[in-house]
Specification:
alpha+beta
């Protein structure tokens, strides 16, 4: 990921996986200058949450660092449109099935 200043700031370090129990697509991003690793969780192309992967060893990351990580996650999903479209469909299916059951019941 290229940051606003045109230099590489963050890297995606794990492939995205679907966590059905959480209903999210999850992958990890490392912020190069600080070495902080973040768990990025997405439900679609517009919703991403991040949290430090190692809470005890990661000092409070600045808003600027967290912003770059969010930007990286969104860019990664958009750059891999077909893959993430399929993953988000897998995440959405159980929610749709559950909603259908509650409407029918």
């Amino acid at each position: 990921m290229t940051g606003c200043a045109g230099r590489k700031v963050c890297s995606v370090v794990t492939p995205p996986v679907v966590l059905q129990r959480e209903g999210r697509v999850v992958f990890h991003v490392v912020h190069g200058p600080t070495g902080d690793v973040f768990r990025c969780a997405m439900v679609d192309f517009g919703v991403v949450t991040i949290e430090p992967l190692l809470r005890d060893s990661t000092t409070g990351s600045s808003g600027a660092v967290r912003g770059v990580v969010v930007e990286t996650a969104l860019h990664h999903a958009a750059s891999n449109l077909d893959q993430f479209t399929q993953l988000f469909a897998l995440v959405a299916k159980p929610r749709a099935d559950k909603a259908g059951k509650s409407l029918a019941g």
